[in-house]
Amino acid sequence: MGLTLSWLSVIILIPLAGLFLKSLELSPEQFWDILTSRRTLNALRVSFGLAFAAASVNLVMGSVIVWALVRYRFPGRRLFDAIVDVPFALPTAVAGVALTALFAEKGWLGAPLAALGIKVAFTPVGIFVAMIFIGIPFVVRTVQPVLQDLDPEIEEAAGSLGASRWQTIIRVILPSLAPALLTGLALAFARAVGEYGSVIFIAGNLPNVSEIAPLLIVIRLSEFRYADATAIAVVMLVVSFVIIFAVNRLQRWAQSRIPAR
Amino acid sequence: MTIEVKNLVKTFGSFKALDGVDLKVDSGELVALLGPSGSGKTTLLRIVAGLDWPDSGEVLINGEDALAQGARERHVGFVFQHYALFRHMSVFENVAFGLRVQPRAIRKDEAAIRARVKELLDLVQLDWLSDRYPSQLSGGQRQRIALARALAIEPRILLLDEPFGALDAKVRKELRKWLRSLHHEINLTSIFVTHDQEEALEVANRVVVMDKGRIEQIGSPDDVYETPASAFVHGFIGESIELPVQVEGGAVRLGDRPLALAAGGAAPGASKLFVRRHDMLVGPPGSGAFEGAVQHVRNFGPVQRAEIALSGGKTIEIDAPRDKELRVGDTIGLQPRRYRIFAGA
């Protein structure tokens, strides 16, 4: 217990406290000015907005992937199962370069998309794509064990009681998976907000358009405006914390409706 | 409602789960499908429920082709061995599920659903658990809730797959009695699967004994116990002594020892002699068809169980009344009160 707490403090709490202390060097007015500057607001909006959108897409697509991996036996299933972990394992910069090459105007996917008038690389869409890429394993890996544990008999029970396939999914399967789905969503979101390496390659990094908050922090640091950087960091920290906390509560609520066996 | 199954065949890969099964269940009957695991009894039940599909054959429920319908349309109550309750729903919502998913046109209003669920929970005597979740219930309570849930849709027939298989012996015995009286009360045509002969004999009106995807015998509990139709049934139901014998010209031999037993109508050749343990009567040496030495004696409730080494090498176990004096080392004579001989090694 003591060891756990000290370790947690050293690893997580002390650096966070340092961050807050540093930001205290700013007067409240300065702090407010930094935060409400157009560039900061836009960077935060890009980061949180796209992260949430990407996490939502991952929630849906991740569920579909999990369903296929758990419920179907198809050739190459183990290979696909392993591939899910690639975004985890790949250095983020490598992922960024790969995605950029793929979606650049002359890339394999970029060229046909450009023909349709859709530009992905060096736009906010690129950030969105990168965030989806790095977030997908979080949804898959949190939901997978829960779905594996879900007894197929409960679906048969629902069917023999007269439920349609759709009613079975909505009333029986999704509620059973809800806590895991919410956890997956929260993790994918947190990862996307904090993502740096893969995003900056594909983003184009235009201030106010495709500049993410973590990049703005790095820019401020390189300009030796440490207080500015910490101010943005503190806001990101607080907002992230609030969102994760909210999801956590939601998840606890969903969990409480499925008491442990 | 009647259930009729004709020449049903089902294979899983190279395994023949059902190998030409014919069965007719009359309206209001409570039939037990009894057999060892792998005998095909659960597969048969699942096909009747629409949870599995046969390779060939027919299933008729009340004379209508049931295979033309999915599980959803068949209106069959199914109770699973491991309950399959919805964990995220209260007991009340579990029972109400079948009513809530009905098509809007025929769905009952909330008050009617509440009344119906209350009625069912009363029927299974668990109305006081209405707000609990399945994880907070004991196994026996869960299975009764699962039964109430299955009955909520007013099924045409009721199918139970090893309903008491996951429960401990005491609860199982209570629920057996309860199921029989419940069936008496609601009088719904029902089939239940079990590997427990005592359960089948105690609960069912009729017992269907299955082995290796085939029906070995269909009969009343008395029939299958008193007049088993095959060596398998005799060996599977009740505790039997089984001895390999030779039948030749109306005489029976054990090894090279002739037995003073009539072969009855048994065909010549290698056969099996079956005697119930309690049908072996103990007498003085030389008084019966068999002779042997007592090796062990243990008391088992109303009887004493003795291990006897027959002259000729085989060791058998018999059940004798407690007042019969049996001492280890004694040589005794044994005469079967009743016995049956089935052809085949």
Are there runs of chain B of 5+ residues with pLDDT below 50, and where?
none
Helix content of chain B: 25-40%
State the separation between the terminal residues of chain A, measured CA to CA: 27 Å
- State the oligomer: heterodimer
Biggest interface goes to: A-B, 23 and 32 residues
**Total count of strands of chain A:** 0
Helix and strand content put the structural class of chain A at: mainly alpha
User: Which sheet architecture does the biggest sheet of chain A show?
Assistant: none
Question: Helicity range of the residues of chain A?
Answer: over 70%
Range of strand content of chain B: 35-45%
Query: How many alpha or pi helices of chain A?
Result: 13
Structural class of chain B: alpha+beta
Give the ordered list of helices and strands of chain A: HHHHHHHHHHHHH
Describe the structure.
The complex is a heterodimer of chains A (261) and B (345). Chain A has 261 residues and is mainly alpha-helical. Chain A has helices spanning 2-23, 28-36, 38-71, 77-83, 86-89, 92-103, 110-115, 124-149, 152-160, 165-194, 197-203, 213-222, 226-256. In chain A, helix 6 (92-103) packs parallel to helix 11 and helix 8 runs antiparallel to helix 11 (197-203). The longest helix of chain A has 34 residues, at 38-71. The mean pLDDT of chain A is 86. With 345 residues, chain B is of the alpha+beta class. Chain B has helices at residues 41-49, 71-74, 91-100, 110-123, 139-152, 169-186, 197-203, 221-226, 231-236; strands at 3-12, 15-25, 30-34, 56-61, 64-65, 76-79, 157-161, 190-194, 206-211, 214-219, 240-248, 251-254, 257-262, 269-276, 280-283, 290-300, 303-310, 315-321, 331-336, 340-343. A 6-stranded mixed beta sheet of chain B has the order 6-7-8-3-9-10, sandwiched between helices. Chain B has a 5-stranded antiparallel beta sheet with strand order 13-12-11-14-20. In chain B, a hairpin with a 2-residue loop joins strand 12 and strand 13 (257-262). The longest helix of chain B is centred in the middle third of the chain and has 18 residues, at 169-186. The relative contact order of chain B is 0.12. Chains A and B meet through helix 9 and helix 10 of A and helix 2, strand 6, helix 3 and helix 5 of B.
